[in-house]
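Page 42, continued from yesterday. The earlier attempt failed because a stray header line got pasted into the input along with the sequence. Redoing it now with the clean sequence only.
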Amino acid sequence: MNLKFKFLFGDFMLSFIGFSIPMSIFYLLIYRNFLIAFIFGIIAGIIFASLMILFILVVKITFIPYYNELSKNNNIIYNSGANLFKDKNSIGGWMFFTDDAIYFHPHKFNFDRSDFKLSFNEIDSVEIAKTINCIIIKTKDQNCIKMAVNDRKNVIKLIKSKI
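This time it went through. Structure tokens are written below.
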């Protein structure tokens, strides 16, 4: 089982900084004391970031049964968290690359929990989207599939090597 956990420190720091700074400003406006605002902001950031990491771990652990089932008949060459965009909805989940297809398995916190599979022989092209961390996969039947992925340059390189 090789689900990647290497992004946890970066995720923690991003969550910590992204939450503690606004909370410090909020506490400064309420208490008008810089020291109290700074301390409460740090505490709030640590609590929030810890809860986010716990959420990430729980979500990643829920994909282990799907990973094990998929790996029985397929060679999984890459896996990572991803969001699949359907209409105006962003569906969070986990993306698996095998030798012949891309599989997307949504986590249980989504309304749409249907799995998605796209064979590499159905893909016409892949490109960087204008949105941060997003890619657009164009299929041979002219459909566009938008996904937010970690390490999108590597994902695009991998897809291009398979089509």
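Notes: DSSP finds four helices and seven strands in the chain.
Reminder to self: strip header lines before submitting.
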